[in-house]
Write a structure and sequence with these properties.
Elements: H1 24-31, H2 35-47, H3 52-65, H4 69-82, H5 87-99, H6 103-116, H7 121-133, H8 137-150, H9 155-167, H10 176-184, H11 189-201, H12 205-218, H13 223-235, H14 239-252, H15 257-269, H16 273-286, H17 294-301, H18 309-321
Helix pairs in contact: 1-2, 2-3, 3-4, 4-5, 5-6, 6-7, 7-8, 8-9, 9-10, 9-11, 10-11, 11-12, 11-13, 12-13, 13-14, 13-15, 14-15, 15-16
Amino acid sequence: MKTKVLLLFSVMMIPIMLGAQNVKWLKKGLNEKDPNKKIEDFTKSIEKSEASKVAYFNRGSAKYDLKDYQGAISDYSKFIEINPNDVLAYYIRGNIKFQVKDYHGAIDDYTKVVELHPKDAVAYINRGKAKRILHDYQGTIADYTKAIKIDPGYAFTYNNHGKTKNEIKGNQGLISDMNLYISLDANNPNGYYHRGVCYTIVLKYDQAIADFNKAISIKPDYSPAYANLGYVYMQQRKTDLAVDNFNQCLKVDVKNLSANLDLAIVYYMKSNLQESKKYLGIAKSIEPLLAKGIDGITALENGDYYWTDKDKKSLKKMFAELK
C-alpha cells in the first residue's frame, strides 16, 4: 500500500535589485537571460568587488537553474557569510540541501530561518518534512504543530501531521487531525484519502472504504484512492472487488506500483499463477528494487510504502514461488 504526503516546498530564486551604484557587470548579469552568461557576468562582478554579496546571491540562482546544486549552495553560503541575517538566503539554501538529500543540512538552515523569523510556518513545515525522512517523528509532529498554531489556514499541514502520527502508532490524535483537515476543506479529496489510509492501518476497514469512496466521488480519476480501496478489499478477501478497483487505478495510472504489485498478490491468492506472474513482472519493471524480493519490500518501506506483517509473509511466499 502506498501512502502519499503533501508538502509545501519551493526553491525561490529571487534576484536582489540594486540602486544607483557602479555595478556594470552585476547589472549586465541581472539583464542577461542565459544562465551561463549570467554566471560569467556575476563572476566578473565578484572579481571587481561590485556589491559582491548580491552577485553571489544571483550567481547561486543561475547555478541552480543549471542544476549545479553544490555550486549554488556554495554561492549562497558566501552570501550568508557576508550577510548572516538574511532569512531568504537560509531558506533557499535549505531548500536546495533538501533537494540533494542533505536533510541534516536543510534542518540547520530551516532552524536558522525560524530563529530569525519565528512566525514562518513554511519553514516549520519543511523542517518537519526533513525530520520525518530522518525518522524523527516526534520532532516532525512538533514542527507541524507549530506551523498549525502560526497559521491554521495551512490545511495540508494537518494532512502531514496525521500521516506522521500514523507512523508512530498509538498516538491518540491519529484520526482527529484528519477530521480537522476535512472540516477546513470538505471538498478536498486528499483529506478523505489520507484519513482512509489511517483507518486502513488501524484496521477500521469499513471507515476506510467510506473515505476512499468519498475521495473518488469528489475526484473520479483519483488513482491512489482506487489502489488503496482495492487493498482494503484484498485484506477482506473480497478478491473480485479488489481486482476491479486495482484495474480502475490502472486505467488512470498504468504504472501505479501498488496496484500492479497488489494485483499480483490477489491473483496469487486466487491461485492464478499466470496472472500473478504477469503483474509481478510489471511491478518489477516499475520498481527494480523488487528484483531483490522481500529485501526490496523492506527497502521500499523506508519510503512511503507500508505493508503489514501478514502482507510481507504473503509477499515472501509469492516471490519464492514465482521466481
